[in-house]
Specification:
By secondary structure, this protein is an alpha/beta fold. The protein is built from ten helices and eight strands.
Length: about 325
């Protein structure tokens, strides 16, 4: 038999209030579960080494970078692969979904072959990094922590660059937009919350030599519509936005947009839209015969040429370039 104080207060209003409270609790639980599932589907973070990984090449230094401070500090796993030349330009490598650093080695090595020293990181939840399930916000924080470390290695802004592939391209654009803002030179100044970047449009200092984005998308909502049905209001249900096209106008550095013309996962029109949204010095490199993962390998010669022309000529190099190259086999996945 229920307690007397419960039976004494079984009024319709009380029952409605209790039902509403239970419903809200259930809805909150469902929403939380959906958001967890959303992040799992987006990042597909892998802890294990890629099946084709045969070990870290000689010359790569492995270390841990702190994110945050105090009792909540976590660490991300990083690789630093210095170029042969001590004063070589350096690039921060931001990878896409699923594969951790062990599955990125072919692109990391290609960037080093282009003449860069390379800093590559695993976001929290990937590989040997701390954390559980990544999110848009934590990926942005991880990129900023890595950038602060790179700035200490290369104080000259003209000799430091940002590279992002696929989902990492969205992280790279957010970082570039944040660095172009009011507190660009203050370590750790990027806001924690996603979509809170508000750069000062009139600022003149360039925080980096350039941004390279490859095989990436305009917004995550656009990608979701591409994979489902455009008429579905899927954006209302998504908590992870990755609004790259909205941030591109705030980027204050030269931008090289690279996309495989045969990309079946992220159509090249997304890369063209990002190129169109960029307001500064820029180039678009469309690689014929390349898919989502192999533009850097398939179009290596033209890739190298585009990097040299855009970042070497700076503001004078603003023309749109569409390059067609012979098809080659794809190496690895991202």
């Amino acid at each position: 038999m229920p307690p007397a104080y419960l039976t004494a207060h079984r009024s319709p209003a009380l029952r409605i209030a209790i039902a509403a409270a239970v419903t809200c609790a259930l809805l909150f639980g469902v929403a939380l579960a959906l958001r967890q599932e959303e992040r799992q589907l987006i990042f597909r973070a892998d802890r294990d080494a890629a099946r084709w990984f045969s070990g870290v090449p000689a010359g790569i230094q492995e270390f841990e970078l702190p994110v945050g401070s105090g009792p909540t500090v976590q660490h991300i796993h990083a690789w630093w692969w210095p170029a042969t030349k001590a004063d070589a330009p350096a690039v921060l490598y931001l990878h896409g979904a699923r594969w951790n650093l062990t599955g990125q080695l072919f692109r990391i090595q290609q960037l080093r072959d282009f003449g860069f020293s390379v800093l590559a990181i695993d976001y929290r939840g990937f590989g040997k990094s701390d954390g559980d399930l990544p999110s848009e916000s934590t990926a942005y924080q991880d990129a900023r922590a890595a950038w602060d470390w790179l700035v200490a290695q290369r104080p000259d802004p003209a000799k430091r660059f940002i590279y992002g592939h696929s989902l990492g391209g969205a992280v790279a654009i957010d970082l570039a937009a944040a660095l172009s803002g009011d507190n660009a030179d203050v370590p750790g100044a990027m806001p924690d919350a996603a979509s809170s970047v508000k750069p000062v449009l009139g600022q003149t200092p360039t925080p980096a030599g350039g941004l390279i984005i490859e095989s990436t998308f305009t917004t995550l909502v656009d990608m979701a519509k591409e994979l489902t049905y455009p008429w579905l209001p899927i954006g209302l249900l998504m908590s992870q936005k990755f609004d790259s096209v909205g941030k591109m106008a705030n980027v204050r550095m030269p931008v090289l947009v690279v996309h495989g013309a045969g990309d079946r996962y992220v159509p090249s029109r997304f890369g063209e839209a990002l190129y169109a949204a960029a307001t500064g010095p820029k180039k678009l490199l469309l690689v014929d015969g390349a898919s989502h993962n192999n533009s850097m390998f398939t179009g290596a010669d033209n890739y190298r040429l585009a990097i040299g022309e855009l970042f070497g000529l700076g503001a004078e190099s603003t023309a749109k370039v569409i390059v067609r190259t012979p098809a080659r086999r794809e190496r690895g996945r991202s």
